[in-house]
Design goal:
single chain; 2 domains; globular
């Protein structure tokens, strides 16, 4: 069924992208055949730790998430915005316009929420990002319901998974009970049209029950939890908490957490000149952990690791609500796994909340 799905998407003109094993990790890349999926692989994740291990079955999607997110295709790490050259005095300006139709295979529920968040960032409001809009248009999304959460996952806490709840064209639930198969659901007219062209049979009540049970088991096996109640108020009321000093002693300001985060969108622009008088403007990923990112004439407004980590966390979990109407965290756990020193955002929130609860108890006494 999966090979037929990939063939149908390619015949409709899509560039098909999905998970595959490379360099010791499960990454997102061009997918030529279903045999290129991470068949029989799973991942073991903890703070600063990621390892691939063999499963006892032939599951195609028996893992959590890897270092890549789908933003690398919708919001690439480096993209040319325009180029200009002299033409008898008046410059000629050319803008690049992406014209690929993208199909994502294997999108988790947390990642669906991340794409939705970036849609609001880049497409909402008065100023639409043209490059993002062109890449996002007509994107076909094949979601996969999770049955194997990672050690750093906490999507249940953020109400973003593990079940896909909209935002997809097709959703698949892998059933492993001796007869390997997928329960497929259409989430759009485009998805229903593709599903009609695939070999299939009607799902039985037993099929649906098995699929639901696998998702429910995943809900109960999250590697992390986070109390998400009033995070904006919690962090805004603790801007001088000593925990910021504690995390600053460990933070390397490397920006790994922002690079792997599926919602972070900080960028900078770079101009490149050539000897013929031409110029190109490129947009590149940037990070609030960079000293230069907060540079204003005269110096950086966030000169310390303490201030930069606090900015990242209070924005992600707090003031993001003011800007975009939701948290900027989807509970995927990537920032925990890929932090070289294992800084854990759920642990930091818990530490600040615990101190506040102790103070509140003391005040009541």
């Amino acid at each position: 069924m999966l090979d037929q799905l990939l063939d149908e998407l390619r015949s409709d003109g899509y560039r098909v992208l999905g998970p595959t094993v490379r360099d010791g990790a499960i990454v997102y890349d061009d997918l030529g055949a279903a045999s290129e999926l991470p068949i029989g692989w799973t991942d073991t994740q903890d703070g600063g730790t990621y390892r691939l291990e063999r499963r006892a079955d032939e599951a195609r999607f028996g893992y959590a998430v890897g270092p890549h997110s789908w933003k690398r295709f919708l919001f690439p790490s480096r993209v040319r915005l325009w180029r200009a050259k002299l033409n008898g005095g008046a410059p000629e300006i050319e803008q690049d316009a992406p014209d690929e139709r993208l199909a994502f295979v294997g999108v988790r529920a947390c990642e669906l929420h991340a794409i939705e968040i970036q849609d609001r960032v880049f497409l909402g409001g008065v100023h639409v990002d043209d490059d993002y809009a062109a890449r996002r248009e007509d994107t076909f999304i094949v979601a996969v319901n999770c049955f194997e959460p990672g050690g750093t996952c906490f999507c249940v806490s953020m109400d973003t998974g593990p079940r896909a709840a909209g935002g997809y064209d097709l959703a698949l639930t892998e059933i492993l009970d001796g007869e390997h198969r997928f329960l497929a659901e259409a989430g759009s007219a485009t998805g229903a049209a593709v599903l009609e062209r695939l070999p299939r049979r009607a799902a039985t009540d037993a099929d649906v029950a098995l699929a639901d049970a696998s998702i429910e088991r995943a809900e109960a096996r999250m590697g992390r939890t986070m109390d998400a109640f009033d995070l904006r108020g919690l962090l805004a009321g603790n801007l001088e908490h000593p925990r910021w000093d504690d995390v600053a002693k460990r933070c390397l300001s490397c920006g790994n957490c922002t690079a792997v985060c599926p919602t972070c969108f900080c960028s900078a622009v770079e101009d490149e000149l050539d000897l013929g008088g031409g110029v190109e403007r490129w947009r590149v990923w940037d990070t609030c952990f960079s000293l230069d990112y907060a540079y204003i004439h005269g110096g950086s407004v966030r000169p310390s690791a303490r201030s930069r980590y606090r900015q990242w966390m209070t924005h992600k979990l707090g003031t993001w609500h003011d800007q975009f109407g939701s948290s900027g965290c989807v509970g995927c756990g990537r920032c925990i796994t890929w932090c070289p020193v294992g800084i854990d955002i759920t642990e930091e929130v818990a530490a600040i909340r615990a101190t506040e609860e102790v103070e509140n108890d003391a005040a009541l006494a």
